[in-house]
Amino acid sequence: MGTPSEHTPLIATVEVGAAPRRRYSHHVARRFFTLLLSSILFWFFLFFIASFTFLPRPSSWPGCGHGRSKVDYKHLRQLLLDTPSSKKAEEWQRYYTAGPHLAGKNYSQALWTKEKWEEFGVQSHIVDYEVYINYPVDHRLALLNKEDKKNDSSSDNWQVSFEATLEEDILDEDPSTSLPDRVPVFHGYSASGNVTAPVVYVNYGTYQDFEDLLKANVSLAGKIAIARYGLIFRGLKVKRAQELGMIGVIIFTDPGEDGEMTEENGYAPYPEGPARQPSSVQRGKTTPGYPSKPGVPRGPVDGAIPSIPSIPLSYAEALPILKALNGHGPKASDFNKWWTARTGLGHKGVHYNIGPTPDDVVVNLYNEQEYVTTPLWNVIGIINGTIPDEVIVIGNHRDAWIAGGAGDPNSGSAVLNEVIRSFGEALRLGWKPMRTIVFASWDGEEYGLVGSTEWVEEYLPWLSAANVAYLNIDVGVRGKVFSASAAPLLNSIIYSATGAVESPDHPGHSILEKNWDKKIDTMGSGSDFTAFQDFAGIPSLDVGFVAGEDDPVYHYHSNYDSFYWMKKYGDPGFVYHRTMAQIFGLLIAELAHLPVLAFSAESYATALDGYVTQVEDKLNAVLHPPKEEEVDISTLTEQVISELRGNHYNSSSSSSTAITSSTSKATVKAFRDSFKRLHDAVDKLTEKAARLDAEAEDLRSQAREHIPWYHWHQKIKLGYQIRKVNTKYKYIERSFLFSQGLDGRPWFKHVVFAPGLWTGYSGAVFPGLVESIDARDWSNAERWVDIIEACIKNAARKL
pTM of the entire structure? Predict the structure, then answer.
């Protein structure tokens, strides 16, 4: 062969020997099975890793310890009962109530709270939001008389017959009342303005109260309203007055709201006794806020906040204005029993005349507010669990309208600190929860649930995927009567926790036995659970000790909601603070530690059936309203009264005329018949819910049994079954969200629960139906039947 060139093929013939004989006769089969076994082992390894990542770990089941600490569920519960301290709760109370902590002006408290939680062993951080809120600058309220009535054109002949101090009395016994930087009386989101006009008494200022006034031809436009607190959210009083052309609103607290505990009945006022301090004033917001993250556009506020000024007032300083109405216009007794119920100033010379006052007797209301964009600070603490997508969120708000806030909100703040300190002790022993626990100290609740709402909206995708439940504590202690509101899924854990905690006043007996009527209210609004329950569809609860008939009067949003009042009257010895911390700790433990979620789907289904019946009763009451003399107000709860008097179209309204046309009757009949569809859908849901609860109970029994390590496949199977059941439980509440929201209130997505349209705080069930009935809009009511039926069926399918 010649010299190779670039054109020479690189091919050569090479002599080779015979091919070697294969060692195995089934080489191909052996290779196949080797690959198959490797694949099986690989996928088994992935499944094994996934099971420890996403499935409940057997080591955390009841009866099993966590590592070397041996903190099993029984040990954890005992620790949560033993650790809370009345002395510590008093210490936290003293700190939080030592000075003013309005929303956006409490960073030092936020930082202290963060550091304290970290001291307890809980990793924490501060999350800030920029919000649009107001602070008080100046105000005046005066009653003016014109002496020279002949010279009406002159402004020099007006005399001040009464000038309100707009202050709460300084009490030597109560240091909070004399703080130099105490918060003035004002309304959150009230409008600035300076108005002078005759005044009209509007009772509670409900929608129906105003309807009564219109029917009686009482002049409202251009006048100033004076209303008493109660029944409905204060902002709705201002809203309706504004809609009717009134130019200002004064809201006072009538001692008739205090029941038996009044001066008229012989009880001394605070601080000498348990009755209301005459100069106490209830502050509060008049509309929700509109927050955002820095740099994120805010929604327009035009029309979202009041355009007329309003101011809160004590009953002591309301007396001269109410007496100026004596003899002018009809009396409250000329209307109906709703106007005379719970009136408590007759013995002070008030006749409860409606007015208006004559043109020569007017009120000057001056209100100056500064609106600013300012940061709020939420404190967030986290105890990481072993399951990444099952999370419990716990919250209390920190901000207050006043320097004190011993009841609202800082009894809850003190309780939450003791709960976190207790879980910190468990962490120190090596305990780790199955589910992640997120603790939140919210800012801006008083201005419209601002801090919690903004946080929920920001983290909505994560919360929707992972949040199992939200537990709220606002006013933790202001009396000795236990109170609870909850989504029905959570009812069982409330009974369980209260049954395990001893009553401070009844040794040997539980809170469940002695301090509670065992009634659980529906969720409305008014605290930080709103965004979780009504917007995100996360089952929520709210608990606390409230004042009973024999408890001292609680001075809501007043300077007298102070550390001194709490120590002397509200909770001497802070024993109910400790009790509340025990209850709250057990609630959290039952949700965070146990492998199977402590939910009851059947309780939810049963409640839904009752809610459908409740709406049917509502329809019957609207179509066939009872006569006024047949209604015994003394037997009605405040929520029922607020529903009767707060909605647009009540039996006293001119729009509640009998339905006479054949078309209307047919439409109403079709709507009434549609309730059967809802009952049928609930029946099917109940059947599936009962099966799910039975399966869950069976899994709980299996989880309590010891499974040897060599039966690892049984553990994985059980973990998978538990995971499946928990996922079904987690998404039940989400099934009742309607993406378009309620009519006129698209932010509220839940079709079962929402605050009443014209009541505010109190909860309404099936609000779309209720509001359609109130409006006599039967076609829209049937539309809501379709929506609700679809949601119920969706929930059943998911089960």
Answer: 0.89
